[in-house]
Amino acid sequence: MPRSDPSRPVTTHDVARRAGVSQATVSLVLSGNPRARVAAATRERVMEVAEELGYRPNILARGLVRGRSYAIGVVVPDLTNPFFLDVVTGAQRVAAEAGYAVLPGDTRETTPARHLDALRARQVDGVIIDGVGAATLPHDSLSDLKVVVVDEPSERWPGIASDALAAGRLAAEHLLGLGHRHLAFIGPATDVHGFRMRERGFFQALRAAGLALSSPRLRRVAPSVAGGLQAMRALLALPAAERPTAVFCATDLLAAGALKACLTAGVAVPGRMSIVGCDDVELARVLTPELTTIRIPARELGARAARLLIKQIDDDAWVPRPGKPLPVKLVARGTTGAVGGE
Amino acid sequence: MPRSDPSRPVTTHDVARRAGVSQATVSLVLSGNPRARVAAATRERVMEVAEELGYRPNILARGLVRGRSYAIGVVVPDLTNPFFLDVVTGAQRVAAEAGYAVLPGDTRETTPARHLDALRARQVDGVIIDGVGAATLPHDSLSDLKVVVVDEPSERWPGIASDALAAGRLAAEHLLGLGHRHLAFIGPATDVHGFRMRERGFFQALRAAGLALSSPRLRRVAPSVAGGLQAMRALLALPAAERPTAVFCATDLLAAGALKACLTAGVAVPGRMSIVGCDDVELARVLTPELTTIRIPARELGARAARLLIKQIDDDAWVPRPGKPLPVKLVARGTTGAVGGE
DNA sequence: TTGTAAGCGTTATCAC
DNA sequence: GTGATAACGCTTACAA
Lengths: 342, 342
Fold this sequence. Notes:
Distance between the termini of chain A: 82 Å
Radius of gyration of chain A: 26 Å
Strand content of chain A: 5-15%
Order of helices and strands of chain A: HHHHEHEHEEEHEHEHEHEHEHE
Largest sheet of chain A: 6 strands, mixed
Oligomer: homodimer
Shape of chain A: elongated
């Protein structure tokens, strides 16, 4: 009786019956198994009937027997940050091509551990983890799961990274080159490794130029527009002698907040304050003036992470060798100018 | 031998063997079936062993037997538009609570039909469709799939909508109330119903005030920041007599582009040009001046759509009754002011 | 109350 | 070449 339910999806059994062959033969034909030696005539008839009936393979059933779900998870701290969304988008494109679904999620309303548990319950074949702090992850809950980390160092899992050190350095050199000597830094008050490296690169370049940065000019805030706003307000409230003429923000969101603080306070940008962001999200070109920033190839990061992950999943023996960090570059736009310029 | 593979996930069989009961009993205890009458002692021992072994149910296997995947798809035109991302986020929260995974995707690089095919291959139990044009959907490819449409009229599927007509009307009334009489409209050149209604509400209110709008002041462009930029440039290039003093943009992205065009051209906002957006995405408060806009409850829209969908999935007989559109409201911020004001 | 057994749709290993 | 047949991990009658 259930066999004849007209609304039930078409299965290999239905195709088999209609084509007058066994279900196994249908599977052989349709699963694209290269070692399947099926007579051309049989193959053709099976394919015809499958087409005619509108057969669609049940990926879940296939997954059950193959021990795969053909799904991967992507865990980021905040999906509303366009940077992380780009990472997800990049991963999704590659995954889709390889027949994998992507389950994106962020850890705003949950802990990484809890989120990973949910992903494991769904039998995801692997996860991409970005900006969550590999060190804080529960090792045991990640066993029997392939992992690729983005912008995180780890001996435990392969990863793909952007050249965050260079990002900070490029920002510093750009500002230095414009004649700025009183610099400030605004970064997120989180222990995300990639962000830390941006900071470190910035300070290394400053030191190399013989400059230091007094502590009031190093602001750690929430990694958001609001955080940037607050940090810049604090900088603007500094006594004139202490006040910076340029600031590097570790993310574009922070930079957007900083810019807004300046504009609202009537501080000309880049006239009296130069601002460099980092990420080059779409928002950077929406702001007025357009944001000078360091371009991090977020989509490429996501795409490579997905390739790395899927490679591992498909070939268990494959050992990834660490690659070079992806290059970043300065994109000079409207928020930076020569010191004292107008 | 495979039974003893230490890296293999723990199954109900493992728990059963260890607890000295049958696999079915384990399932009875662990599946939370209310009609399961199991002795308290047995239940307790099973739960203990399950905990001890770190048992995690395989959702895919459960789905196979129950004919469910516990996954839903969300299809939107563009995930980089924060409005649609909010819809997805709202849906995701509700779905997660109900044990459903969300497969988000947009139709930038593919057609809705193709995307829906991919979702069906994954056996999703239903889809939420927003801004894709219900009329353009291939009816047949949606059979045996529960569907909820957002901001689209449809006799075929239940839906949840925002009060788009009111959105347009509120924008017009706000501008009219500020004394503006030379208005313009910038909308996306797509046939998304929700956007059309925003437009219609706007024009209805104008007509009610005895105003009309010459065709050069009605601009249809790509639904993006770039589109808004281009449209506003065109408006600014109009002869003085034709030039509007205020404009309503059907989305915040368009408004952001319009604002940028003004700022770049040295046209004071709101001094010489007032701008009203629609959506109230986060970006609205990042811009300087902050964007006056109509708040559409995107997350709530997504959340309700998910609830509606999951209700349908879980209770096949349930027939949704059409609800009222969600209310929208004007959020007056910095981009609107009295006509001729400064 | 618990165990046995069938089956969800697929893949994969065999004989034939 | 092709067809039985046994899994995959789980739910759910039905039997004991």
